[in-house]
Design brief:
By secondary structure, the protein is of the alpha+beta class. It is 30% helix and 25% strand. The strands form eight sheets. A six-stranded mixed β-sheet has the order 1-2-5-3-6-23, with helices on one face. Strands 18-19-9-20 form a four-stranded antiparallel β-sheet. A four-stranded antiparallel β-sheet has the order 10-12-14-13. Strand 18 and strand 19 form a beta hairpin. It is elongated, with a radius of gyration of 24 Å. The two termini are 31 Å apart. The N terminus is likely disordered.
Length: 496
């Protein structure tokens, strides 16, 4: 996701009809009856560590199996029909050829438990009063629980619906979309869908997800050199998180060099550093602020900042030195790709392209770098690839050859004709008091693009920092209960 300028909003509808009495009555019932139950459900869902495990399919992953079993038992307890298709669980209510889909996911991103006050897989309601902290609370287990109790409130009220409601819970959204694509080829999805994996008021466009990756192969060691030399550089955790950790080791360092680095680093906002000497080696540890990679402006990228702090002298193109030279010359500390050749651009509605280094790994073969890309419409994929390739070629001519270069540039997505947009905007305005709400674009990518007539509706408020993918994921209780009311009202309006 990305926070954009006012230009990133489409025109507001000419008129927005307030939700019906049946919708507001059901939403009020949901709030009064299920405020405690929804928190308990979120806690149970968070307890399952549904991070993807390499080479372990969903059907063999104990955490995924347990999570799906809970969905089945809980869904049936609430009075719904539940079907487990393996990678997708569908919780349904009502009958009819016309269906309204609620699209969510039950898997979560990796975590570093050392960075959490309590276990990230234990709902923490006490460390920060008013916040529900845990992996998945915002992305996307909180929305699943909210949808279940919105459906339950509607069922309680005995509202006659003309359309069937189906809650889709996909188990590999964060790692592999292919099983969902295959599922939708064999099972027709609902004709109208809302995705609960983004932000309000309504998201009708998403930037294309992409990456640039390559290897800096090991360079011959400089035998008997007395000059300072970068011998290690690491950072990042996973590709769609702005990294808050990075580290470097300098051989033949001097106190004067340390002082210069400290002085440059002191000018950076939001960064903390530690310096540790061992003989003539200086190890530097950098701590920034993690964020969703679709919102790089909301984080403080430790990789970029550490490279910048080291820009106090020219570095030889050792393996780590070449990496730092690349980061400073081609990436910099900005997030919009202004130094990456001619690639930088923006779209009036979707906003600017973003470019962020996210993962560095050191191996016996060299150092690999992954750069996260989010691109709007406005340039073709071929043009973006050509401009990036040219920038890489120019840098290699000045420095060292890169290997295993991969440019994976995804396409932006725009939903122009979803019939439910006005209803969603009306409900949002009614419950938030925000008038003239307008559709918007985000930097993230959701499963909306795989479903017909799909747009995103929450769970995050517009212009709030999205905490999913960070090492401090949470949703406030206030927001959770506001979402409960809005989801209940919206489902009544769309399915009545």
């Amino acid at each position: 996701m990305g926070l954009l300028s006012p230009a990133a909003f489409a025109a507001a509808p000419a008129s927005q009809i307030p939700p019906s009495t049946a919708a507001t009555k059901a939403a009020t019932h949901a709030l009064k009856t299920y405020s405690g139950d929804i928190v308990a459900s979120v806690a149970k869902m968070v307890s399952y560590n549904t991070v993807a495990v390499p080479n372990v399919p969903i059907a063999a992953n104990p955490a995924h199996i347990g999570f799906k079993q809970y969905l089945r038992e809980h869904g049936e307890h609430l009075g719904f029909d539940v079907t487990d298709y393996g990678s997708v669980v569908v919780v349904g209510m009502g009958k009819g050829p016309q269906r309204v889909g609620i699209v969510t996911h039950g898997d979560v991103q990796p975590v570093n438990p050392a960075k959490w006050a309590k276990s990230p897989f234990e709902l923490d309601t006490t460390s920060e009063p008013g916040r529900l902290i845990g992996r998945g609370t915002e992305d996307d287990k909180g929305p699943i629980a909210t949808a279940l109790y919105a459906m339950k409130a509607i069922k309680d009220q005995g509202i006659v619906l003309s359309k069937r409601i189906e809650l889709y819970v996909y188990m590999a959204e964060e790692s592999d979309w292919d099983p969902l694509v295959a599922h939708l080829k064999e099972h027709a999805p609902p004709q109208m869908n809302i995705t609960l994996d983004s932000e309000y008021p309504v998201v009708t466009a998403e930037k294309g997800f992409g990456s640039v990756s390559f290897m800096l192969p090991n360079q011959p060691a400089r035998i008997d050199s007395v000059e300072p030399d970068l011998i290690a550089f690491t950072g990042g955790f996973f590709g769609s998180q702005i990294p808050e950790d990075a580290g470097a080791v300098i051989a033949n360092a001097t106190p004067r060099l340390e002082a210069q680095i400290r002085q440059r680093a002191a000018a950076q906002k939001g960064m903390r550093y530690q310096f540790l000497w061992q003989d003539k080696q200086l190890a530097i540890t950098a701590l920034g602020v993690s964020a969703h990679s679709s919102q790089p402006e909301n984080g403080v990228n430790a990789i970029s900042m550490l490279a910048d702090a080291l820009a106090v002298r020219p570095w030889a193109d050792s393996t780590a030195g070449a990496l730092v030279n690349f980061l400073n010359e081609v990436i910099g500390t900005g997030v919009y790709g202004q130094k990456f050749g001619n690639v930088a651009y923006r779209d009036d509605f979707m906003g600017p392209m973003t470019v962020a280094p996210t993962v560095i790994k050191q191996s016996p073969e060299g150092i690999s770098l992954n750069i996260n890309i989010r691109r709007p419409k406005g340039k073709s994929k071929d043009q973006v690839v050509a401009e990036m390739s040219a920038a890489l070629t120019q840098w290699q001519a000045r420095h060292v050859a890169l290997t295993n270069i991969k440019l994976n540039i995804g396409d932006p997505w725009v939903q122009a004709n979803a019939p439910q947009v006005d209803t969603l905007l009306s409900v949002f305005s009614h419950y938030t008091g925000i008038k003239n709400a307008k559709p918007r674009s985000i930097g993230g990518g959701t499963n909306s693009r795989l479903f017909p007539n799909a747009v995103s509706f929450g769970p995050a408020m517009p212009d709030a920092t999205y905490s999913g993918h960070s090492e401090h994921e949470f949703i406030t209780l206030k927001q959770l209960l506001l979402n409960l009311q809005m989801y209940t009202a919206v489902l009544v309006e769309l399915a009545k």
